[in-house]
Amino acid sequence: MPKPLRAINARLAPLLQGLCGPDDTVAVPGDWVADAGRFERVEPWGVEPHVLGWLRLISVRDEALRALPGPAGVRFVNGRRWQFEEEKRLDVASKDQRLIEPRRHPSDFTYLWFDKWMELGAGMGRATRSGRCVVKTEFGGSGRGVRVVDDKNFEAIHAWGDRLLDREQPLFVEPFDDADAELSAHLTVTDDGVMFDGLCSLRSTPKGQFESVEPLFDPPPALLDVRPVWEAVAERARADGYRGPLGIDAAVKDGVVVRPIRDVNARWTMGRIALVTGREVRNP
Question: Whole domain around residue 113: which residue ranges?
């Protein structure tokens, strides 16, 4: 695990310990956990090959590991290509959103398209109050793989995009939405179906880095108007083989959800933890 992520996990783990029962344990991947075979269930923050390898190394029982979703399915649903296609399928995508495929032949065709959409992106930015647009890579949570374009950094981000296209990585260009609030919708995907768990008010940086979250136990009805969209996303994730917690970030303006699928997180999130712990505080 990269050092920055390990440092974040080490800081969060003691905070989560207070949510555990007497027979529960919170551990950072790579740490040794004595008698790990006693656990009936494991809940990784993210189901990734290195995490599964660590769980096997400390002898977590096979039954607990078989209950987890496969890492390939998790990665598929976490990918921005999957999310981009879901926005289009459900007819909630901005007409200005674009997928730029990596260059797969010697010509500069893709580069010409990247130039076109970066220019379009600059136009998007000038048309919005913020004066910005956003370029995203296929993967990268909590703000990683996201660049907010403005007049000052246009050339630098163009060069960054060229390098990624050279490495066969797609790019996604979209308007910087002028949201005045953010939501995270939380659902659970199981073999039996999809369950809507609730909403949280979310605060993050313009690049999508998490800042804070607060459960919304009595949300205004207008915020739930797009609940069918969130449930449709979860049903598609289920059809594609994902099982587990699903968080969907959304953008709100003037009390209305203007972008119901800003980001999809096929994993535990801070919003889900806030929702669960908030209910326990309200109903001890």
Answer: 98-175
Q: Which tokens hold the place of 260?
A: 């119901």
Instruction: Answer yes or no: is 41 within a domain.
Output: yes
Q: Say whether both 138 and 195 belong to one domain.
A: no
CATH code assigned at 143: 3.30.1490
Sign for the pseudo-dihedral over CA of 52, 4, 2, 57? negative
Q: Name the residue with tokens 């660049």.
A: 147
Cross-strand pairs, 193: 190
* Residue 9 counted as domain residue: yes
pLDDT in tens, 188-222: 999 999 999 999 998 877 666 777 888 998 999 99
Task: Share the mean pLDDT of the chain.
Answer: 82
Residue (of 240, 195, 198, 284) closest to 86 by Cα position: 240
Residue count (the chain): 284
**Residue 131: inside a domain:** yes
Q: What CA–CA distance (Å, rounded) separates 213 from 270? A: 7
Q: How many domains does the chain have?
A: 3
Give the tens place of pLDDT for each residue, 70-100: 888 889 999 999 999 999 999 998 887 888 8
DSSP letter string over 41-98?
Answer: ----SS--HHHHHHHHHTT--HHHHHTSPPHHHHHHHHSHHHHHHHHHHTT-S-TT-E
The rounded distance, in Å, linking the Cα atoms of 82 and 118 is: 22
CB 59 within 8 A of CB 219: no
Q: Can you give the pTM of this predicted structure? A: 0.83
Which of 149, 175, 201 is the last residue before a domain boundary? 175
The reply to whether 260 falls in a domain is: yes
Q: What is the 3-state secondary structure (H, E, C) of 235-265?
A: HHHHHCCCCEEEEEEEEEECCEEEEEEEEEE
What is the rounded CA–CA span in Å between residue 251 and residue 254?
10
